[in-house]
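Why show two proteins at once? Because comparison is the fastest way to build intuition. When a single record is shown, students tend to memorize it. When two are placed side by side, the eye starts asking what differs. So, the first record is below.
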Amino acid sequence: MSTQSPGTDRSRARSVTVDGAHVACWESGPPDAEPVLLLHGYPADHHCWRHQVPPLSHRYRVITPDLLGWGESDRPLHLPFDYDTEVARLGRLLDALGLDSVNLVGHDYGGFLSLGFAETHPERVRRLAVLNSRAHATFTGRWYAVFSLISLAGRTPALRPAAMRLPYAAIHRRSLAPLVRAGHLDTGVLAGYVDWMDTPEGRRWLLHYFGDYRTPSRPELRRRLQDIPCPTAVIWGRADQYLRPTIATELAEAVPGAELTMLDGTGHWVMDERPAEVTAALRRLLSRATPHS
């Protein structure tokens, strides 16, 4: 494993063990500074935060893991990946990192997990940011159908042989091609996101993951939004083709004192498309007093 991750500016690589599996992490900034944990979404890895890590690490201890199954972390087939297990696993990641509490920032799937963790373990979340995530809701109709079908294939043995032959890497490259053409995403970073899906082992793990994944909205997350006690930021690209902007406005209206940053003309990958605005919104959040300050 490399000791420096591209775009993360003097980051330190480390490995921790969670549920018996290897989780790759990168850290930047003063080791004794206030911790900020940045969680990537699907199908990305820690590189999605490459624009935010350098400026934030001037003041904070910034930690960017590859969630279990993604990037350089292990892809264990014997572990479950249902939502409740993944949320609880986030707590075990904090334990492995030696963190009692953290500023928690999540995009997409990382935001989905972050929201659940903030609701179930509020004492461990100092501040919360959710960026273009299904959060308490779900995807637009087309993408709801796509993810539901892959999930069905993952948990149906009769469908698995056909599903194993699908060109997942090519499908994901095509969906991310507009970001590459616009100059927001380097082809090398994209390769890290999806090339592993070209291998039989990668496809097998992806189907294993989706076998535990469920697409419907999470009503229990919606009910608990008003109970989130920490300062919260909702940062959103209004032109997201996967997730409606109403998710963002619902979050901002329901979570007490949440600050909404809505970026017009911006899609799902807000950190790539509007890096300066995202960093500024995160800095505003980190400057807010916490209930225990």
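Second record. Ask yourself what differs from the first in the token line.
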Amino acid sequence: MNSDMILTNALLVLPDSVVPGTLVLRGDRIVEIQPGRSHAPGAIDLDGDHLIPGIVDVHTDNLERQVQPRATARWPSRSAMLAHDSQTAAAGVTTVLDALCLGDLGFDTGRTQTFKDGLADLDSLTHTGLLKSDHFLHLRCELPASDMPQLVDLAADHPLVRMVSLMDHSPGVGQYRDLERYRTMRVRQAQMNLAQVDQRIAELLDQRARLREPQRRWLLDRVAHRHLPLASHDDDNEDDIIRNAADGITISEFPVTRDAALAAKRIGVQVIAGAPNIVRGGSHSGNVAVSDLMHDGAVDVLASDYVPPAMVEAAWLAAGQGHATLPAAIAMITGTAARMAGFTDRGWIQAGLRADLVQIRPFEGHAVVRKVWRAGERIA
């Protein structure tokens, strides 16, 4: 029989309060929440630090950054996956949805290999006990990409899939609705001249006109039997939010305008926002500031997007800036995120749930992750 582990002298961040107390863990579960400090032999003193549930990240592209640490340097996929896993665990993320892109729009050709390699690596590693965090899949489906359907067929029935998002990264749309900004970015990143970029833009817009709508309907039909959470991506207007909701897409992921986010909240669509946007003080691509959406009450869940440590820092900043109480801000990266992805066994500090926990010490406005447990086992 597993002996109890006692974590004491902590500020427990519960669903609606922060209280000094003690947790008793047995095996992989929380079995008791006690007020005050425990004097039991062997109790682990957390030095008065905060203790929050393990973080649930519903969208991270961090694997892509490990696969390609520089523009011309591709890293071996298995090494990249293990590095990504270590980084998520160190950031307090105990459950992660690896957001892999399905579909090539001509500027990020390596993403298809990243998807296929990532799928193979998760199949190989998931049951070995070598991964620190729990890894699942978030399929990011590029609607106008000609190869999207065949890639979806490789993963649509995979047991690790927990979310599907419908994306359109065509020039002049959503995140890239500023066409001049898009041109400048592609000339800089793609090692192409302006004429070549303009030619590719014309090709992509023609492709979008032909493929986006039939492939959107195909995708919705293809994944319907899984009853997965469906998200739209980079919404910029109310009409699209309403249309998506009518088709069962009940999450708006990274809306790029305030109007889109507010429209989502009006009709009961949940909103995912990027934690790095809060930490940086604004969008890296010129879109709406998440702190403004937080002020409007138009954010349900924060995701790391491309920086895993941004999760806890963004929640702490949001609470410090008065956009939410600390329990409410922490829920955006734990309990609410867990429920969004269909998990009912984690996300809160509550008896009977998994002992996924993160010890945090605030320091000069930062939230420093000191220790991390997943299912009662120390992983960082």
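One difference worth noting in the second protein: The CA atoms of residues 266 and 298 lie 9 Å apart.
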